[in-house]
Write a structure and sequence with these properties.
By secondary structure, this protein is an alpha+beta fold. Helices cover about 50% and strands about 15% of the residues. Helix 5 packs across helix 8 and helix 7 crosses helix 8. The radius of gyration is 20 Å and the shape is globular.
Length: about 300
């Protein structure tokens, strides 16, 4: 903290730091207020290697005209950034106030994000999709629930996960994927009806429905399923995707399965390894999504049986 304060003092920010938040990584955020302005400070000193990707993606989003906080000052050596302060209102805070309008804006923003430059970004390929889902068995089943699958169950699970990867890869690929585009990572500028993207440094190149399912089957917010389908198909139409609605919703479902299986492992790991137990509160909704989708398709009903056991 002393190093952060020294650097801020050296660039003219001498006011006290006000804690804003800490996210699922080891980054911390502070607000520095003066009589005439306010900025947000990111302390990534425990993950200095994430700063360059953060700045790189910020520049790409800016070029694509996707709103994100401007970077005002950077200290790559120590892991600090100063960014413009765009307030504290997230989509999560507006679920009782014309939220459908804000979701429509957020969906339009996905269309815009998918025009972002992807040159040099890592791919969401088969190996990475499989790796992410493997976190579920390692951290959720084995380390969190103390459940070890027998040989037959392991074969069954592997077969289902391979099928999910195949389904995900079958949909259009090669698009910018934020990877965590949900109600807590979307800020709102009420004065201009704009949505603002944050926490984008882990972006990859992947499937057309990834950010859409992150938004509409958010593990922190449960939306009405009829509304989810309506908004998902609105996105399909805005992208002029030439498939029938059932095919598109199948893409959407299997992308959600991959993401939610991963999240079970990630949330268990955050609790066990990092002592961040708050994420465990979102496991029931995550499981609900997995069970509902697994039940819809013959190829994934075995996953439902495994989880129920």
């Amino acid at each position: 903290m002393s190093k952060l304060k020294e650097w801020l003092n050296s660039i003219g920010y001498t006011q006290e730091l006000e804690v804003v938040s800490a996210d699922a990584s080891f980054r911390k955020y502070y607000r520095v207020k003066s009589s005439s302005s306010s900025v947000v400070v990111m302390d990534s000193s425990l993950q200095k290697e994430t700063l360059l990707p953060f700045i790189d993606i910020a520049n790409r989003l800016y070029e694509a005209k996707v709103k994100s906080p401007k970077i005002l000052h950077s200290n790559l050596e120590d892991g600090f950034l100063v960014m413009e302060d765009l307030g504290s209102t997230h989509l999560f805070n507006k679920l009782d106030d014309d939220f459908e309008l804000w979701y429509a804006e957020a969906i339009d923003n996905i269309v815009k994000m998918q025009n972002t430059d992807i040159v040099g970004l890592p791919n969401y390929d088969e190996a990475f999709l499989s790796f992410e889902m493997s976190l579920m068995q390692e951290w959720y089943l084995t380390k969190y629930l103390n459940i070890n699958l027998d040989h037959k169950q392991q074969i069954q699970l592997s077969k289902i996960l391979d099928y999910i990867v195949t389904e995900v890869i079958s949909q259009p690929q090669g698009l910018f994927v934020h990877r965590d585009y949900h109600s807590r990572n979307i800020m709102l500028l009420e004065s201009s009806s704009e949505v603002v993207v944050i926490d984008y440094q882990d972006a990859r190149v992947g499937a057309i429905t990834y950010d859409l399912v992150s938004l509409l089957r958010d593990v922190y917010v449960e939306l009405n399923p009829t509304l989810v389908k309506k908004m998902a198909l609105t996105f399909k139409n805005s992208k002029n995707i030439d498939v029938d609605n059932d095919t598109f919703m199948r893409w959407f479902d299997f992308m959600g399965l991959q993401r939610h299986i991963k999240i079970l492992g990630v949330f268990a790991r955050l609790s066990i390894r990092d002592g961040k137990d708050d994420y465990l509160k979102s496991i029931p909704l995550t499981l609900k999504y997995i069970k509902e989708v697994s039940l819809k398709y013959e190829e994934t009903k075995g996953l439902l049986r495994l989880l129920e056991k």
